[in-house]
Model the fold of this input.
Amino acid sequence: MFVFADETGNTGKNLFDDTQPFFLTAALVTLTNFDVLCSGKICEIARSIDVDSLHASELGLAGIEAIADPLLRVFKSKKSYFLISRVEKRYLLATKVIDHIFDSGENPAVPWHAYNVRPLRLILVFKVAALLDEELAKLFWECLMERRETACSEKLVRFCKILLTRVPYLPDKRSQELMGEAIQWAINNPHALLIHTNTKHKLLGHMPNMVAFACLLEGIDDLSKKLGRPVKCITHDRQSQFEKTLKAWHELYSNASDEPIMLPGEVRILQKVPGSTFQIKADHDSAGIQAIDVVLWLFLQFNKGRDLPPRSANLLAHVMKRGWQNDFSFVGVSEALTQKLDEIYQGDLTAEQMAKGKV
Done:
C-alpha cells in the first residue's frame, strides 16, 4: 500500500481561531505507487485548465468542477481508498484537561476506573467541557504551552481553583465529589502532575496536527489489515514546523511493540504501519498529494455546509463510498459512545456474558 497525506486547518498554537475550529488530515491510499503511475495523468489534468499543478484553494469550486470527472476516472482506475481524520480543537483541549489532571496514575484522588475505563473517561471529558468557557480554556492552553516550570505550575493552580468553583454546576452529586476531590488534590500537589515540558517535540505533540496524524496512522493500519496488504510508504505534504515531529511519531508507532494491551472493554496495540517508510514531499513533486488536496478541500467545503456543483459532488460521493472517517470531536465521539452504550443498555445479555459478570 502507498499512502499520500495532506492537511488543512493549521493555526499553530492558536487553538481558538473561530474561523478554523477543526483540523483535518486526509490520505489517498493505493495498492500501487500513485506518484509513479499517475504523475503524467495528473499533469495532463492540470494542463487542461492551464495550471502547473493542482492546488484546490487556488482552483476553487469552478476549477475543481472542470477537473472532477477526469480525476474521478484516475481514482477509479487505481481502485483508490480514502481516509479522513477530523479533530475539533476545543474537544482536544477538553481531553487534555482530563489527561493531565484526572489521570489516576498521577492523581491518587481519581478512582482507577474513572480514568481507565474508556466510556467513563469520555463522560468526564464532556463534563469538564461543560465547565469551560473560552477564558478558562485559554488559561489551561497557556499552562500546557508554558516552558517555564514555575509559571506552568502557577497557571495550573489558577486554572484548577477557578474550575473548582464551577464543580457545583455538574448535574449529579457523585461527579461533583469525584471531580472536586481530584481538582483539590491537583491544587495541593501541582508539581506531581506531569504537565510541564520545555521540549519542542513534546509541545508540538499537543497540537491538533499530531493528534490527527496519530488517528490517521490508526486508520491506515486498520485498512492495511482489512486488505491484507502491508504499508510500503507514507508520503506527507511538506510542513516545515512539524516535519521532524511527524517523522519521529511515525518511527515511534511503526517500531512499537505489537503485544496487545488488555484494558477494560478494549484491546489496544500500539504498533501501527510496521515496516513502512515515511517521506515528506512538496505538493508540486507528488501527484498523490495534489490529488488528495482536492479531496480534502472538497470535504472541507462540504463540512462547512456549502453546496457542491454536480461533478464535484459526484467525486466526493465516490470518496465517501470508498473512505473512512475518524471524527475526534464532541459530535463524533458522542455518537460513537452513545451507540456503544446502547448496545449494552438495550441489548439482551447472553448466558456467557452473564457468567462473566458474576466472576
